Amino acid sequence: HDPGAAGNGYVEADLTTILRNKVAGILRASGASVTVDSDGDSLKAVLDKTASTEKDVIFDIHWNAATPAATGTEIFTPDRHTDLEKKFAKKIVDAISSIMGIKNRGVKTEAQSARKRLGVMRPNGINMLLEVCFISNKSDMERYLSNIDLVAKAIANVLIEAENAVR
Q1: Which of 7, 8, 18, 100 is most buried by a 10 A CB count?
Q2: Would you call 61 helix, strand, or coil by DSSP?
Q3: CB-CB contact of 100 with 144 (8 Å)
Q4: What distances in angstroms separate CA 44 from CA 1, 80, 138, 164, one per listed residue?
Q5: What is the pTM of this model?
Q6: pLDDT of 63
Q7: Which tens digits make up the pLDDT trace of 99-144?
């Protein structure tokens, strides 16, 4: 519904759809149960469809935007996160930073986000919101695009591990 950030000839919504579909495909091939949002849904529509339980993993994909010099990957968890949320968030951000060779901006709480509150954070299950890299940084985008399959596989592997931990 909202195309999100744009930079270096890319639009966040397009990038998100591609990565989401790659991750979902890997998850489904592994036998995981996967639900994805519809591309045209508003945040409210997505949240209305998301009735998470303590046995769910909610994962949201985004791209950061700032100055062309801003770089790195980061991931957000709820303010009142569980040890599992923090553990799996750290695994994802560490993997992406390593694969892409970009700055690891770490695991942060939603209060540390630009918006201070993130609608996708639910009280149940494992909740994470990933900022893959900076769409406004040409080098970040080149590194992402040349490693997209490795990034998708790394994310999927951690999500499978997270799903197994809550089942």
Answers
A1: 100
A2: strand
A3: yes
A4: 10, 22, 32, 28
A5: 0.91
A6: 96
A7: 999 999 999 998 888 777 776 776 677 889 999 999 999 999 999 9
